[in-house]
Amino acid sequence: MIIVSIIICAALAYYFAVFLQNKKVGYGLSFTFIALFLISIVLLVLNENNHFGMEKVTSSSTEQIQTVNKGSKLLLYKKLGTQGKEDVYVYRTPETAKDKKPQTTKVDLHVTNKVKVGNYDAATLTKKTTRWEYKNDFYSFLFGISDNNKEFIKQTNTFKVGKDWLVLTTDQAKELSKKAQSKSFKTQMKTEGATYVKAAMMKAMQENPTMTSAQQKKVQEQATKAFKAQAMEKLVEEITEK
Q: What confidence tens digit (pLDDT) does each residue in 155-187 have?
């Protein structure tokens, strides 16, 4: 509407100055519409440069996320900048689990990504987005033609994942997968794993010599799980320390 007002004011100022027979009245009306013309221009500039008639509105949404690689608990990110401010995180949601391409966070200097690791029941992503929006319908009607409503300002993405998740770069994840599937690592897992489980079983039997076969099986499963977690942790440390 403001642009329409500018055009109308310019046209009326010209009309009254040129075509009105009573020049005194014509010039008076012309100056009035010139003033309105200039005011409209100033308001338009203020809206474009200083977001006049607008306010910052922050919205928040939380969604459950899934790992990109099935069978693992990995939160991946790709390094784009030198200071970590432009890192892009890669993830899926239950709704996009079957999509060919995973979802990523927005590539923008005004987007901040945070990762919190703790005792969370589910892995989630909370997005807090701040945009410029018109204060009311009047300003929206006045400046709506500028098409700047809901203009993006900034966004903060907070990932919350459990302690059993790994947060790695895409390159680190590829290296981890390669090493975990290597023949040497599998051999190491087999030999050292057997020693670890045997030691755990002997300790458990010393503490409780009357253990049932079911109890022994449970100790064996727990020891196997603990060894695998320990071995994977060492492997991750080896990769991330490079």
A: 999 999 998 888 888 888 888 888 888 888 888
